[in-house]
Amino acid sequence: MASQYFSTAMRQYQNFGAATAASEADPHKLIDMLLGGVVDRLASARGAILRAERPAKLAAISSAVAIIEHLRLRLDMNAGGEIARNLSALYDYSVKRLLKANADDDPVIVEEVSALMRELKAGWEAMNQAPVARH
Fold first, then answer.
1. What is the pLDDT of residues 87-129, one digit of tens each?
2. E strand or H helix at 66, and its extent?
3. What's this model's pTM, rounded to 2 decimal places?
4. By the 8 A CB rule, do 125 and 84 touch?
5. Contact 107/46 with Cβ under 8 angstroms?
6. Is the dihedral of CA 13, 122, 79, 87 positive or negative?
7. How far is Cα 6 from Cα 12, in angstroms, rounded to an integer?
């Protein structure tokens, strides 16, 4: 019983910490946090598939899909041009693959999407660390 209270308290603390960090983050940091959230949830989903924990798998994949859809819906297709179109296609592909992974209990597909998201996150981080050209 005590462990249940501890788990609940830890979840509330983590949720509060994440909400606080998100509210204080600049837009670039927020996208980085969202991509990290997708990677984390996909790791959880993969583990749940391997342990045959269907409810945990469904929750993790659903959460990852929701974050990816949030990222896709926030793309500025006019200002982003080809980059935004490519990201939209990548997000769409990732969601379709995750739906298949969920239906087939396939950890390989989950890892495929996770690798894509890790690569995207690394690129995003590198872009934000690049010096800004001044004219």
1. 999 999 999 999 999 999 999 999 999 999 999 999 999 987 7
2. helix 54-73
3. 0.78
4. no
5. yes
6. negative
7. 10
d(CA 107, CA 101): 7
The phi, psi pair for 105, rounded to 5°, reads: 50, 50
Residue 129's nearest CA partner among 64, 39, 32 is 32
Rounded CA gap, 112 and 25, in Å?
Answer: 29
Distance CA 7, CA 4 (A): 5
Backbone dihedral region of 57: left (phi > 0), alpha (psi from -120 to 50 degrees) or beta?
alpha
DSSP state of 134: -
Tokens coding 75? 């793309």
Structural tokens at position 82: 């080809």
Q: Say how far residue 98 (Cα) sits from the centre of its chain.
A: 12
Cα(84)–Cα(88) distance, integer angstroms: 6
